[in-house]
Design goal:
By secondary structure, the chain is an alpha/beta fold. 42% of the residues lie in helices and 14% in strands. 44% of the residues are buried.
Length: 281
């Protein structure tokens, strides 16, 4: 990427988002915005990166809050900036010992990981430069094979799938959870899986939609990243994961790709890469 580029990273005050901003500040000639839901923590994160010799800018952003999204888009408009790179990193994960009910966990997971990501990205589209890039942080859980039902997999992976249809499928899942039928209906037992499969499906349909503007959209499974979200569990450091994501973000090849944590492009509707790449059964 050349001079005067603009990049935005969501959910960037800690975890994977923090080194993503740092790595972009090092590799990108231009402005990198660190955004976070909590303004105080976001500003503190910016100061930490500045002490390393890099100079990100800060803007508050809660992707799940429409007023916060409007404030950011209004700021971009007022600054007369165009965004070259958007990295959707903000997300949520309920661990196995979570106290919330099954439906609350499903509702919040779908809302933050899928619905808020989609709504924010759609709001940003007028401000993304033609030829720009969008990266959605995904997971191994986003592989299509993680959905048990063949019928659902066919619907979700259809090349003719529209956003309205995808949103309807996510709502169908929540209704199934409410009725305690998610297993019976073929969704499986993990809201996180459904949310990340939804993110990947959105990635591919958005890449098709934006082809005439030259905007490329990819999704990346960064690995099991050690973070607060996993309570310190994981086998990949945030710094290591950030390098893979930024490498994908800064390349200019065709979009619509699903990257594994080792940098390989994997077929979304093929065999589970945890078997043939990670060596897991």
């Amino acid at each position: 990427m050349s001079n005067n580029k603009v990049a935005i990273v969501t959910g960037a005050n800690k975890g994977l988002g923090f080194p993503l901003v740092k790595e972009l500040c090092e590799k990108l000639d231009g402005i990198v915005y660190l955004t976070s839901r909590d303004e105080t923590r976001g500003i503190e994160a910016c100061e930490k990166i500045r002490k390393m010799g890099y100079y990100p800018k800060y803007h508050q952003l809660d992707v799940g809050n429409s007023n916060s999204v409007v404030k950011l888009t209004s700021f971009i408009c007022k600054e007369e900036q165009k965004v070259d790179l958007l990295i959707n990193n903000a997300g949520i994960l309920f661990l196995k010992d979570a106290k919330e009910s099954k439906y609350v966990q499903a509702e919040q997971t779908i809302f933050i990981n899928f619905t808020a990501l989609v709504n924010f990205t759609e709001a940003m589209l007028p401000f993304i430069v033609d030829g720009g890039k969008i990266i959605n942080i995904s997971s191994s859980s986003g592989h299509l094979s993680r959905i048990p039902s063949e019928k659902l997999r066919e619907k979700i992976s259809s090349p003719n799938l529209t956003l309205i249809e995808l949103q309807s499928l996510m709502n169908d899942y929540l209704e199934a959870v409410k009725e305690n039928k998610e297993i019976e209906d073929g969704w499986g037992d993990s809201p996180y899986v459904v949310s990340k499969v939804g993110v990947n499906a959105y990635t591919f349909l958005l890449n098709r939609r934006l082809a005439d503007r030259g905007i490329k959209v990819d999704c990346v499974h960064p690995g099991y990243v050690i973070s607060d979200m996993t309570r310190g569990s994981g086998n990949v450091s945030p710094d290591e994961a950030a390098k893979v994501v930024v490498k994908v973000a800064l390349d200019s090849e065709s979009g619509g790709r699903y990257f594994w944590h080792n940098g390989d492009v994997v077929p979304w509707d093929g065999p589970d890469p945890r078997g043939y790449i990670d060596g897991k059964k």
